[in-house]
Structures are given as structure tokens and as C-alpha cells.
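Worked example 3. Consider a protein that binds magnesium ion.
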Amino acid sequence: MPDRQPEPRIIEADSDRAPAPDLARAVCNVLAAGGLVGLPTETVYGLAADATNPHAVARIFAVKRRPQFNPLIAHVETREAALRHGRFNREAERLADHFWPGPLTLVVPKRADTPIADLVTAGLDTVALRVPAPPLARGLIAAFGRPVAAPSANRSGRISATTAADVVEELGGAVDLIVDAGPTAVGLESTIVACVGAQPVVLRPGGVAREEIEAVLGGPLEVERSVEDRPAAPGRLAAHYAPATPVRLDARSIEPGEALLAFGPDLADGAEHAAAIRNLSPTGDLVEAAANLFRHLRALDRTGAVRIAIAPLPSEGLGEAIRDRLARAAAAR
Ligand code: AMP
Ligand code: MG
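Given these inputs, the predicted complex is written out as C-alpha cells:
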């Protein structure tokens, strides 16, 4: 990615009002074309992309220079829209009723027929959903008509952007359009509650206090340790998707019974004997590879191969996150 980016386009708007038709059109055009929008919610400025377009979602990781594919929150305009993507148990319904729209994210089992891309959920069978409060953000998502993936609009490892100027400073012209609605109201990330097992669990503290959630649920809430170092213990939420089939990294040749996850035009030696082949990107494009990663892994996992051999991948750009995720898949065995 070149260091010098063109200036992003900025459109001013009022958070408390539904978007003007011109603004809605501009935002929808960028999102529909697979572009990125700096979108102010009540928590922080999000780096928004069409959650159903894996290439657009891959660009989020590239622009943030995130070294890992952690799952992203899908933002929707209403509770009804959220129900199309996830299955809500009684606690999830109660929390949605009480806190949406607002700074609470619910992690729930993902519906099999949701169009949300695997890269958004990092291949997990759960999905994080939120209905943001500001009429501006909600109106833009409603106008687009599809869920919007949006982590904070800052480079990886830096503090979240809470003004349009922060977004420009962090990401510059890598964002196609920034909606400037002034400083965000909450300035903290959303609280994340998983409603997946028998008991709801707080995955991340944030804009809604735990006490408020406990008051609604009528009991104490468990707080999960860091999502990143959480062990994938039985009954717990798996932090990372891992294929059931063993994985072998940096494979330059294929062993009997192996399936091949290829990258680039040159296939591993013996590829013609592979049980199955999927290529992350025949042209060697890392953004395309990221967009295909979880879909291809899942497909090879279903072939009954003895192992998935993974071609060597470059470690620059999105290659770092792809390699990180594959290394975790290999280590999970
Ligand atoms: P951000 O979008 O940067 O505010 O971060 C989203 C947070 O939600 C990350 O900490 C993710 O790990 C967490 N998250 C999103 N989806 C899931 C999921 N399906 N299961 C567990 N955690 C999730
Ligand atoms: Mg962040």
C-alpha cells in the first residue's frame, strides 16, 4: 500500500437526523462498489464495508493493517434485521429489546442462510450483531439494505477514532468516504455479550455497564477473560475457527491423501494427486486470498482428506493475518 494516499472525500452530517438522500446515495454507492466508509456511530467511528462482500471485508483488514482476522461486528438497522442473521435465545431477545438501538453487541449462533461473509465471523458459527443508535448511522445502514461490518476506523493497535479528523489521520485516503458528524457520543466501544450457551457471558466491557445488563437479566453475569487468550474449552465459545482436518503449513509438495490449499499460479509438487484443490488466489493477490480463506478452508475440511496441505504464503500485507490464522488452525490439533 503506498504511503501517500489521496485525500478522502468527506461529507458532513448530523448524527441525530436521518441521512439526506444525497448522502445516503453516496454512502450506498461506495458500499455497493466494495468500498470503505468512515461511519460515525454512538461508540466510535467505524470503518464500514458491505458485510456480505468478502473482498470489501478483506479490505478492512488491509487498511487497518490488522495482523489477525478477529471477527467483526455486523451492524444492522433493526432488531428484525438482526433476527435474519442470528438465532436469538430468550436472554438475547430480552437484551435486544432493552438495549437496541444502542452500544450493546450480541454474539449469537449464526443462521445457516445469512449472507454475512465468513471473513466477518472469522469462520465461526456465531455472529456479532448490533443496532447502532444514531438516526444517521441507522438510516445509512437501512438505506444500504445489507449488514455493514465496521470495526473502529483506526490502524491496528492504536486507539479508536472518535472524530472524522482521527479517521483521516489514521487511515487517510485508504477510506473512500468519511461521514463527518462530529465527535461520537459514547467514545467507548460497545459492550459485547455472548448469548450462545446456557448463560450469557460478557466478552468485552463497553458502552453499556454490566450492572445495567444484570438488572435486565435479573442475575449476575459471567465476564469472560480476554477473547484473544480464551481457551477453546468445551462448552465455551470457541475463540477461533479451526478445521477438523489436520493442517500442514508451508507445504511445497503433496503427500498421499492430502488436500491442497494453494496460493498463486505455481502449485505444489504432486498437486495433481491431491484429494482436492482450492486456490486462495491464482494470481497471488493477498486481498483475494483473505476473502477466500475461510470458505476454502471449510470446503477442504469437508472433503475427507487426511490433511490439508497449505502452500507457502508471503508474510507481508494481509499475508501476516492469513498466516496467523492458518498457524492457529495448525496448532489447534
Ligand atoms: P471491534 O469491531 O474492533 O469493536 O471488535 C469486535 C469484537 O467483537 C472483537 O473483540 C471480536 O473478537 C468480538 N467478536 C465479534 N464476533 C464474535 C464472535 N462471533 N464470537 C466472539 N467474539 C466476537
Ligand atoms: Mg478498535
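Take a moment to read the result before moving on. The first strand starts at residue 9 and ends at 12. The CA atoms of residues 73 and 128 lie 5 Å apart.
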